[in-house]
Design goal:
By secondary structure, the chain is an alpha+beta fold. The chain is 14% helix and 33% strand.
């Protein structure tokens, strides 16, 4: 489940951890975390019953061992935790309720820099007019009508609109 945030022309997404299953012991968080490409500015939303789970951001060693005696970077326990991904780096999250981390309530993600220029390149390429004729434009032999195709990629909404004239 994703929502969109618009900040200074950039698009950030809010990801509900576990999608419809949310943050609970039955969800497959490794598969969930591999479905998406996370960028700086995105938000992870951990939804769960307060008191039955929690969310800890931890180091890699703590993630692997599920031992929180060290390596805890942040603790969230509200039942509706929102974690903004502020840096391009690897993040590790666990539930610290006894048995939950070792039982699979943990995942890691790799957050990348936002890539606004690649979307611009796609849009600019889609707006380039295409000639149907193989003749040079200034040729006197043929004035085949020029067909213009314009595709507008609205990246923030995930919609591709194509207009043919």
């Amino acid at each position: 489940m994703m929502n969109f945030l618009f900040l200074n022309g950039a698009t950030s997404e809010v990801y509900t951890v576990g999608d419809k299953e949310e943050w609970n012991a039955e969800a497959d968080f490794v598969s969930w975390s591999q479905k998406y490409k996370f960028s700086i500015g995105d938000v992870l939303r951990f939804t769960y019953v307060k008191g039955q789970h929690n969310t800890y951001e931890v180091t890699e060693n703590t993630y692997r061992s599920c031992d929180v005696t060290s390596g805890v970077l942040a603790k969230y326990e509200s039942g509706d935790d929102q974690v903004k991904l502020k840096q391009a780096k690897k993040y590790w999250f666990i539930c610290n309720v006894p048995g939950h981390c070792l039982g699979g309530m943990r995942f890691s993600i790799d957050v990348k820099e936002t890539n606004a220029t690649s979307g611009d390149n796609i849009t600019n390429a889609a707006l380039t007019p295409q000639m149907e004729s193989s003749s040079p434009i200034n040729s006197c032999k043929s004035y085949a009508p020029i067909r213009w195709s314009m595709g507008i990629n609205l990246v923030g909404f995930g919609i591709l609109v194509r207009l043919d004239f």
